[in-house]
Amino acid sequence: MYVAVKGGERAIENAHRLLAHERRGDRDVAEVSLAQISEQLSLGVDRVMTEGSLYDRELAALAIKQARGDMIEAIFLVRAFRATLPRFGATEPVDTGKMEVRRRISATFKDIPGGQILGPTFDYTHRLLDPQLAEGAVPEWPATSEAPSTAMPRVTDILGRDGLIEPAPRADADTPVGDLTREPLSFPADRDLRLQNLARADEGFLLALGYSSQRGYGRNHPFAGEIRLGEVEVEFLAEDVGFAVPLGPITLTECQMVNQFKGSATEAPCFTRGYGLAFGHSERKTMSMALVDRTLRARELGEEVLAPAQDEEFVMSHSDNVQATGFVEHLKLPHYVDFQSELGLLRKLRKEFGDNAQGSPPMQEAAE
Amino acid sequence: MTTFAELPAGFADKVLSAQTTFRSVMDAMARPGSVHCITSAAGTPPGMMRGTAAIALTLFDHDTPLWLDPRMSEASEVAKWLKFHTSAPVVSDPSICSFALIANAEELPELDRFSFGTNEYPDRSTTLILQVESLREGLAFELRGPGIDGTAVLQARIEPLDLFARLAINAALFPRGIDVVLVADDAIVAIPRTTRLVAEGD
Amino acid sequence: MNAPTYNFAYLDEQTKRMIRRAILKAIAIPGYQVPFASREMPMPYGWGTGGVQVTAAILGHDDVLKVISDDTTNAISIRKFFAKTAGVATTTSTADATVIQTRHRIPESTLHAGQVLVYQVPIPEPLRFLEPRETETRRMHALGEYGLMHVKLYEDIARFGHIATSYAYPVKVNARYVMDPSPTPKFDNPKMDNCAALQLFGAGREKRIYAIPPHTSVVSLDFEDHPFTRYRFDAPCALCGADESYLDEIVTDDKGGRMFVCSDTDYCETRQSQGHRGSESAAPHKERAHG
Question: Distance between CA A106 and CA A122 in Å, rounded?
Answer without folding.
Answer: 16
